[in-house]
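ARCHIVE CARD
SHELF: 3
SLOT: left
DATA:
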Amino acid sequence: MPPVETENEVRRTVEAVWRIESPRLIAGLAGMMRDVGVAEELAQDALVAALEQWPAEGVPRNPGAWLMAVAKRRAVDLIRRNERYARKLHEIGRALPESIEVDFDAAATEQIEDDMLRLVFVACHPVLAAEARVALTLRLLGGLTTAEIARAFLVAEPTVAQRIVRAKRALADAKIPFEVPEPGERAARLSSVLEVIYLIFNEGYAATAGDDWVRPALCTDALRLGRILAGLMPGESEVHGLVALMELQASRLRARVGPEGEAVRLFDQDRAHWDPLLIRRGLAALGRVDEIGAQPGPYALQAAIAACHAQAHTPEETDWRRIAALYDALAPLAQSAVVELNRAVAVGMAEGPAVGLDLVDAIVAAGLLPAYHLLPAVRGDLLDRLGRADEARVEFTRAAALTNNARERALLLERATPA
């Protein structure tokens, strides 16, 4: 046992270990108990034990193993105490020892990896509403506290707590099995998982509300989840596509914010501040998509679009014709008016603002995206490029009124102000 550390040092260590180890810990316990709610409670009990014992005894050499050992002992005690778990007790072995010693290296076995994958699919199960899937995923797989999730999404802490409790109850009531979906339903279920991870990332990349334009911590959490999933499902093309998309978009985070926290448009960003390591990682993940050889899905196509931006040293070097072609391929897969709007931007850059404006006006005429602030923002940009400044300012003002993000509103109002 190492020398006893100060209480604050130990608490910081416990928090760091928990953030890293809690997904594996909860996954292993859920595999044992077949109930994610009970698994989280047992994991939390182990966390409390660490907070009580480590300040006095010191941090153990293998803190993850220590947490797993304590949690599994308590799981066995719970099974033995409760007659409802008699059948499970029989299944996992009636002769379980009173004292369980867990080797952390042994814990990192294929079984834990399988349990991790099961936990991913359960936390992101489509029986839950999107906001519940996000909260439960960040709690069980991201290691975030309820307070951290609430701060990240600018939601009251009791609201997040209720979402998590109701999500676990909904999973129990629906008798959702703790298992990886069968091949027949795996594609649809994987789509739900990827959606949750990308929702988390997008809230960090372009916050929908509040005073901050970006929230990098959420992007980091989403990237960590995406990388874990890629390790668990190495043959799934769209998993690597999502990771590539997030890596490439995250590479721009520092350049998206000015010295005073103001929002900076893509065309105005200092590309020297784009992160070359994340770009390399994104391109490598995109290369993995090519190696798998499957038809590119929506995330892989969006990643290819992001790669076009990442590989352009200046805005003028951007291959807008390739981006427009990629959007042509993406549109029928995504079936999304937002994708059509983005396609209009790309076509407007490749073929001229008049062509892009016609596409945007078709979206307006169809009555799509009436409350989406980027629709008037894009229309204003195209009008401005056509020299129709007065009309452009009206559109920027409309866009500013529709956004809930203070930094984005300030940028749009600045564009609405006569030069």
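SLOT: right
DATA:
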Amino acid sequence: MSQKKHTLDPDKWIKSHADYLFNYTISRVNNHEMAKDLVQETFFAGLKAMKNFQGKASERTWLISILKRKIIDYYRKINSAKGKAEVKMNFYADGEREGEWIEERVPTSWNSETEKSIENEELSNTLELCIGKLPEKYELVFRMKTIQQFETEEICKELDITSSNLWVIIHRARTQLRKCMEDNWFQN
């Protein structure tokens, strides 16, 4: 049984894949202009690499794999441009509630779908605000590991950090997020 050999049709990339690639990117970089640039760079790199396409994956899957590299390169560039030094600061210690994370504190009962939708949007906006308040390196590592679900080894390699440093950063980021969410969401 032979597998279908996929082909590329660059003339239809924008119409067929631009929106999907943009939505994929914006959820990972949270910057509209940068997301557009990364999608453009992906299309350009795809054109340059067409001769390497073997037809084993679909056109979209192949473009996504290029886009993932572009996103990693973007984060690597940010990290190296800002320097490798970690910012020292005081961290919120929560005592009894240590280890309670944001997901566990979201209310579970809703009165209606409309309220649920509004509340989810408000929660999302507050969470995004809190993520944006993290020190740059913490935000970068948190987004890559928790939101984008990159593998630990991949993040460590790309950002030139150890796995234990990564987990310390994740812990500190979550602690700061929890404090920020308590101050800005759960107290309302």
